[in-house]
């Protein structure tokens, strides 16, 4: 069971930091145009898009949808751990 928890933690942390890095890249001009920016966009945007549709930007520029997306990701990881603990024991 501890191996499953560590795999979930590793995958969660990787995706968590991918989202953080992608959001930080949005503050710098032309950074998303390189290979890493495009790759992160392809991996992170499908997850962030539903949150951006629900949560509009504040004052037209401040986007809080990644914060909500990270909270939902944390809840999903905890839920997955709980379900696997229930099933595996």
UniProtKB/TrEMBL annotation:
Q: Does the keyword Ribosomal protein apply?
A: no
**Is Transmembrane helix one of the keywords?**
yes
Record's InterPro entries? CCB3/YggT (IPR003425)
Alphabetized, the UniProt keywords read:
Membrane, Transmembrane, Transmembrane helix
Q: Which domain of life is it from?
A: Bacteria
* Pfam families in the record: CCB3_YggT (PF02325)
The membrane spanning regions, by residue number, are 7-28, 67-88
CC terms in the record's Gene Ontology section: membrane
UniProt record similarity statement: Belongs to the YggT family.
Q: What is this protein called?
A: YggT family protein
